[in-house]
Specification:
Blueprint lengths: L1 E7 L8 H4 L2 E8 L6 E11 L1 H7 L9 E2 L3 E9 L11 E4 L9 H4 L7 H9 L9 E2 L5 E4 L9 E5 L3 E4 L5 H4 L5 H13 L7 E4 L3 H12 L5 E5 L5 H6 L4 E4 L5 H8 L4 E6 L4 H9 L1 E9 L13 H6 L3 E4 L7 H13 L9 E5 L4 H9 L5 E5 L1
Parallel strand pairs: 4-8, 11-12, 11-14, 12-13, 14-15, 15-16, 17-18
Antiparallel strand pairs: 1-2, 1-4, 2-7, 3-5, 3-9, 3-18, 5-6, 6-10, 7-8
The structure holds zinc ion (2 copies).
The site of one zinc ion has 5 residues, from loops.
Length: 375
């Protein structure tokens, strides 16, 4: 079928994107779902920093590609051999498909699925195929098995989690990346307990979701750090007990002062090795630093090696919030419905598909938390 989709053909075009238009809305051909796949009418798709790092070239992906990886929709067609889904089901996509059989999947760590990682690197679906063709018959790649910036998409059933029908699409979409990654980093990776101290470095979508997760876990004190002081009111509303302006004095000293010697958990969501080193320095003896940000692949982290042993410090990576999507999407949605995760407060803009380049300009300028394209 013919669908409108946002296609990226050339990375590294200069901002402002409203002028350079790196994403082009094209009519492309979407093939029917193959075995184990679903065709989904996309209802909403969020703009995430990971899309931006593909657009600006800091994260190289095969081109051309249909972008978008934080999305939700309604199933319109099932491929052969699909179990557990029906036409009409609403789903949230997860951006790492899990095969269910490799060693990480078998160990309960589907975010590390080896086949999923290989398919994502190749820009294919989990089964290996690609379902997009442009007007000239050129095959387009899938972003992270999702490609949500399109009216319809085809995904592996292993990239989808069924959700309740009545959840508003622009909220539901956020559970696919920002919420799963941010809340997951706190509850799955860090495993914060009530009364433990937490510092969140970076208040983008993922950082604010981590703040929500830490507040829901009764972290105290709960310290929010950013260079954009205009985000502090929202951070306080969402449960931060203290806000530290990283552009004003030494943020590490301030966090260590507030937490009386360093926090038990520091969560880094900026994607900067420099901020990650600060997060590490802000933890106390026995403390844990969790990083969810994605620095460019060539960056190295330097920390005092001695402190890992004598102070029993820990550094942990958290990919997709160390989530088990089929467990965590429903439980995080239930927490939202119960009022413990006010995810709706993160939604700042609703866009049409053809406003998408302007939306990415806003993200570059940090004028927004989460923007969602309604399809
Ligand atoms: Zn994302
Ligand atoms: Zn696997």
């Amino acid at each position: 079928m013919k669908v409108r989709a946002a296609v990226l053909r050339q990375v590294g075009q200069p901002a402002p994107y409203a002028l350079s238009q790196p994403l082009v809305i094209e009519k492309v051909e979407l093939a029917p779902p193959g075995p184990g796949e679903l065709c989904v009418r996309v209802l909403a798709a969020g703009l995430c920093h990971s899309d931006l790092s593909v657009i600006d070239g800091s994260r190289l992906r095969p081109m051309p590609m249909v972008l978008g990886h934080e999305a939700t929709g309604e199933i319109v067609e099932l491929g052969a051999d699909v179990q557990g889904f029906r036409v009409g089901d609403r789903v949230v996509f997860c951006f790492i498909p899990n095969c269910g059989r490799c060693e990480p999947c078998a160990s309960g760590r589907p975010a590390l699925c080896e086949l999923g990682a290989a398919a994502n690197a190749a820009g294919t679906l989990l089964g290996g195929g690609r379902r997009w063709l442009d007007a000239n018959g050129v095959t387009l790649h899938h972003l992270l098995g999702v490609s949500g910036f399109a009216e319809y998409t085809v995904v592996s059933a292993r990239s989808a989690v069924r959700i309740d029908d009545d959840l508003v699409p622009e909220i539901a979409a956020l559970f696919g990346c920002a919420v799963m990654t941010g809340v997951g980093a706190v509850v799955n990776t860090a495993k914060v307990a009530a009364g433990e101290s937490v510092a969140i470095f970076g208040l983008g979508g993922v950082g604010l979701a981590a703040l929500l997760g830490a507040h829901a876990s009764a972290a105290n004190p709960l310290i929010a750090i950013d260079v954009a002081a205009h985000k502090f009111k929202l951070a306080r509303d969402l449960g931060a007990t203290h806000c530290v302006d990283a552009g004003d004095g030494d943020a590490v000293d301030r966090v260590r002062e507030i937490s009386r010697g360093g926090v038990q958990f520091a969560i880094e969501s900026v994607g900067s090795e420099r901020v990650l080193a600060q997060a590490y320095a802000a933890t106390r003896r026995g403390g844990t630093t969790v990083t969810v940000g994605l620095p460019p692949p060539d960056r190295m982290l330097s920390v005092p090696a001695f402190s890992l042993v004598t102070e029993e410090r820990t550094i942990k990576g958290s990919y997709m919030g160390s989530a088990v999507p089929s467990r965590d999407v429903p439980r995080f949605i239930a927490l939202y419905r119960a009022g413990h995760l006010p995810v709706d407060r993160m939604l700042t803009h609703r866009l049409q598909l053809d406003e998408i380049n302007t939306g990415f300009d806003r993200l570059v300028r940090a004028e927004t938390i989460r923007q969602v394209v309604l399809l």
